[in-house]
Design goal:
The structure is a single chain. The chain is an all-alpha fold and 76 residues long. It has one domain. 66% of the residues lie in helices and 0% in strands. The protein contains 2 helices and no strands. The longest helix is centred in the first third of the chain and has 28 residues, at 2-29. 4% of the residues are buried.
Length: 76
């Protein structure tokens, strides 16, 4: 049973790293354009920002999805 909990923790850590990396990427590089005040055509910079951030977020969600929450039982 301990190996299953270790696997859960490792998957949690990997998912956290990828998701947090994408959040930090967006905080640093996303310019926060005025989408509401103009007809929206994404700029090259916005496309590049999401080209890096979205796959990282999806990979993190993939690892979160591999976790088996039933191993914790009633402990949490």
């Amino acid at each position: 049973m301990e190996l299953a909990k270790l696997k859960w923790e490792v998957l949690d850590l990997i998912g956290y790293i990828f998701c947090e990396a994408s959040f930090q990427w967006w905080d640093i590089f996303d310019d926060g354009s005025d989408i509401e005040n103009r007809i929206y055509y994404p700029t090259f910079w916005e496309q590049l920002t999401y080209l890096v951030g979205v796959p990282s977020y999806r990979i993190g969600c993939f690892f979160y999805g591999l976790q088996d929450d039933s191993i914790w039982g009633d402990e949490q």
